[in-house]
Amino acid sequence: MEYAKTLIDEETGEEYPYNESFENESYFYEISVQYGDKDGELNILKAGSHIEFDDGSWLDFDIAPERLFPQKDKLEESDLLKIMNFLFENIDKATLLSKKEMDAIYNKYLKSLKS
To answer: Where are the domains of the chain?
Structure first.
């Protein structure tokens, strides 16, 4: 994936390519990350955050960024770094879902749309 921007952590020198989009007083950030030996994208939405790994698995965080930054329709780069640090400090509370589990969830969602 191509990214339009680069987030730089001044403390560590780490660079994170990312994209952002905004719609209806909401935001969506896709940040290129690496966790262990896996590459993926950290997706940050007002209502939640997760990492989609290249192998199709997800690491789902039970943390809504809107609770950390209430009433914000756009996050600053410093906010994104704060969220990333918070998520990775609390990674033991995240849920890892395999590609098979994600496919089952998605199929269930599709069936609910037809009902």
So the answer is: 5-114
Beta bridge partners of 42: 31, 51
Instruction: State how far the Cα of 24 lies from the Cα of 38, in Å rounded to an integer.
Output: 33
Residue given tokens 């989009």 in the structure block: 21
Give the whole-angstrom CA distance, residue 30 versus residue 20.
Answer: 6
CA pair distance 99, 55, nearest whole angstrom: 7
Q: Do the Cβ atoms of 40 and 52 come closer than 8 Å? A: yes
AA identity, residue 69: F
User: pTM for this structure?
Assistant: 0.87
21 within 8 A of 36, measured Cβ to Cβ: no
Number of other residues whose CB lies within 10 A of the CB of residue 92: 5
The set of residues, in sequence order, having a beta carbon less than 8 Å from that of 100 and lying 6+ positions away, is: none
**pLDDT for 84-107, tens place per residue?**
999 999 999 999 999 999 999 889
- The answer to whether 29 and 20 have CB atoms below 8 angstroms apart is yes
